Amino acid sequence: MIPGKVLVAYATRYGSTKDIAEAVSKTIREMGIETDCMDINSINPENLSDYDAFFVGSPLHLGKWLPEAKEFMQFRRDILNKKPVFIFTCGITIKDKTEHILKKAEFAIYEFSEYIKIDEKGFFPGKLTVSDLNESDSQIVRLAGVGEGDFTDTVSVIIWTKDIADKYFVDE
């Protein structure tokens, strides 16, 4: 199936997930597939039926997806379950990609994976600049001892997206 149109939807707090969503969208667009890349908060739910596949992403915040991303999955599950859905999660802790870290990231999507058919999952490191954080998040980061830096791996995002396209978007 070659989709006519793909939606890359994301929730973000400080920009990492938006950057990953834009890399996904650009990769799909370069393959000749019409793609919209939108913040979850700006999506008109009435237009979701226009899409043939969905990429949905959220950062990990305190080990969970952002509320608006979880709500999008929950309240749009009737439409999402009719089409391919590819999930991506990003977070500064994912830079270490240990089995323990990846299990925690997997757990973050567990609460909606019981009612959404997820075709593929991607877990990507993000970036963290402490000076960009609000006071509450800054305190949490300091207490957790998380270091700052940009660990975004755009090459991995592009490879993941192309693998999905090869598997799901080919004309048979």
From TrEMBL:
<feature type="domain" description="Flavodoxin-like">
    <location>
        <begin position="6"/>
        <end position="172"/>
    </location>
</feature>
<dbReference type="InterPro" id="IPR026816">
    <property type="entry name" value="Flavodoxin_dom"/>
</dbReference>
<dbReference type="GO" id="GO:0006783">
    <property type="term" value="P:heme biosynthetic process"/>
</dbReference>
<dbReference type="InterPro" id="IPR029039">
    <property type="entry name" value="Flavoprotein-like_sf"/>
</dbReference>
<protein>
    <submittedName>
        <fullName>Flavodoxin/nitric oxide synthase</fullName>
    </submittedName>
</protein>
<dbReference type="InterPro" id="IPR052200">
    <property type="entry name" value="Protoporphyrinogen_IX_DH"/>
</dbReference>
<dbReference type="GO" id="GO:0070819">
    <property type="term" value="F:menaquinone-dependent protoporphyrinogen oxidase activity"/>
</dbReference>
<dbReference type="Pfam" id="PF12724">
    <property type="entry name" value="Flavodoxin_5"/>
</dbReference>
<dbReference type="GO" id="GO:0010181">
    <property type="term" value="F:FMN binding"/>
</dbReference>
<dbReference type="InterPro" id="IPR008254">
    <property type="entry name" value="Flavodoxin/NO_synth"/>
</dbReference>
